[in-house]
């Protein structure tokens, strides 16, 4: 069966839509359906702060239950930071701000044993094991093994239609099948993996059922993929001894990478493509000169990052932006508003890819900066390049309602309806 036929057979459109519907159940605990524009209240908080007591959701009018980094944590005090200087300093300071909520002495849950929730030396030792697979010069490895074939097959399956909702038919499967492919997970199993990593722990059995046998098979015979990198990796402990990762450690890594790799980039692809469709002069310029796409993607990440807020646990009493914050508090770091700080960017609310490139917090910063950022950039640019090449006259569907961005802790479009000339 060709990849394109396999995609058509196994990627059930209704299930895909359900799993990637920001307004549906899957995203409910991340406030996916929240419709208010978060930027005006965020700007007000930065101007009247830059640090406030409270949680970003309720501070901007979202009062639903939320499960995200640093949430819900009902027994801790909560604070939020909104300007670039504070947010940037906090993510670089792992002495005063920790990524771990783990209470010493208690058993670590699977998600707690991932690098996202580790600190200091331990974080460095484990992150270093996979970092070589994510450096810029590995982008071609990702593109040639998994991204390009998925992008081409998906376009093959829509090209005759002349119209599509790119969000679900095109963007959602690309990062999902890329990260699943790198873990040896087949196309028929990919949607089960997505369901498992978004189930707030409920789908762990199915996750183990799929990933455990792959670990065993790669231990017996490694292949040219990420799961083989993990099973062969040797961690150096504090006392200098070296040891291959245990199955549980590989599973912890796998869970984080499969969740983060499949959950973010499709939304950022939609945000970037919508920005181009709504700024047709930029779509034209990119069509003429593909080297401009890199700047467009970075500007999209600055202007509208799909994950606007992450959190840290406060280790020592600190004073930030004139506000005293006690040890034990959760500090929410609002990357999205930091990225619109007028102290760093002129006309920060405008999408303007011609502005000088400077670092932003769309992928975070400091030791936890997104490990998958070069993969994400490669996925977005391969996808948009292919759309421009293969769908002539690509434009927003004038007959469809204008798509709106929604979401509190995870943000994106519910649809990206387009037409092209057949
Ligand atoms: C546009 C897409 C993406 C965005 C906006 C994004 C955003 C982020 C952010 C803001 C962080 C930092 C979290 C913190 O400081 O606590 C992060 C961490 C991380 N991301 Fe991404 N991400 C994206 C794509 C990916 C992809 C494709 C992968 C995997 C292939 C990935 C894997 C990770 C991992 C493993 C971490 C934890 C790193 C660590 O703690 O050392 N991300 N991401």
From TrEMBL:
**Pfam families documented for this protein:** p450
Query: Which molecular-function annotation in GO is an example for this chain?
Result: heme binding
Q: Which Gene3D superfamilies match?
A: Cytochrome P450 (1.10.630.10)
InterPro entries recorded:
Cyt_P450, Cyt_P450_B, Cyt_P450_CS, Cyt_P450_sf
The family assignment reads:
Belongs to the cytochrome P450 family.
Q: What is this protein's record name?
A: Unannotated protein
Give the species: freshwater metagenome
């Amino acid at each position: 069966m060709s990849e394109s036929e396999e995609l058509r057979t196994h990627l059930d459109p209704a299930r895909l839509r359900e799993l990637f519907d920001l307004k549906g159940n899957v995203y409910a605990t991340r406030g996916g359906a929240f419709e208010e524009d978060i930027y005006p209240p965020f700007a007000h908080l930065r101007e009247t702060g830059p640090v406030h007591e409270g949680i970003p959701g309720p501070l901007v009018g979202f009062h639903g239950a939320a499960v995200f980094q640093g949430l819900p944590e009902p027994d801790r005090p909560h604070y939020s930071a909104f300007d670039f200087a504070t947010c940037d300093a906090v993510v670089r300071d792992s002495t005063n701000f920790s990524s771990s909520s783990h209470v010493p002495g208690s058993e670590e849950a699977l998600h707690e044993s991932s690098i996202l929730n580790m600190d200091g030396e331990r974080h460095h030792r484990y992150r270093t094991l996979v970092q070589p697979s994510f450096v810029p010069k590995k982008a071609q490895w990702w593109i040639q093994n998994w991204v390009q074939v998925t992008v081409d097959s998906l376009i093959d399956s829509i090209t005759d239609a002349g119209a599509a909702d790119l969000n679900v038919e095109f963007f959602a499967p690309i990062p999902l099948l890329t990260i699943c492919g790198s873990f040896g997970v087949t196309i028929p199993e990919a949607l089960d993996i997505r369901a498992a990593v978004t189930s707030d722990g409920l789908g762990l059995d199915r996750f183990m059922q799929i990933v455990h046998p792959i670990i065993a098979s790669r231990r017996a015979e490694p292949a040219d993929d990420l799961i083989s990198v993990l099973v062969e990796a040797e961690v150096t402990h504090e006392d200098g001894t070296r040891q291959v990762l245990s199955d549980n450690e590989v599973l912890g890594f796998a869970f984080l990478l499969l969740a983060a790799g499949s959950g973010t980039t499709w939304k950022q692809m939609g945000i970037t493509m919508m920005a181009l469709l709504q700024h047709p002069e930029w779509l034209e310029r990119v069509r003429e000169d593909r080297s401009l796409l890199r700047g467009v993607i970075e500007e999209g990440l600055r202007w509208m990052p799909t994950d606007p807020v992450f959190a840290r646990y406060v280790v020592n009493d600190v004073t930030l932006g004139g506000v005293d914050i006690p040890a034990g508090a959760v500090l929410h770091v609002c990357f999205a508003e930091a990225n619109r700080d007028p102290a760093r960017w002129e006309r920060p609310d405008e999408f303007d890819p011609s502005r000088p490139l400077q670092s932003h917090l769309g992928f975070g910063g400091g030791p936890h900066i997104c490990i998958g950022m070069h993969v994400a950039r490669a996925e977005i640019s391969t996808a948009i390049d292919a759309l421009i090449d293969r769908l002539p006259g690509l434009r927003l569907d004038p007959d469809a309602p204008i798509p709106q961005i929604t979401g509190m802790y995870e943000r994106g479009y519910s649809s990206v309806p387009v037409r092209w000339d057949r």
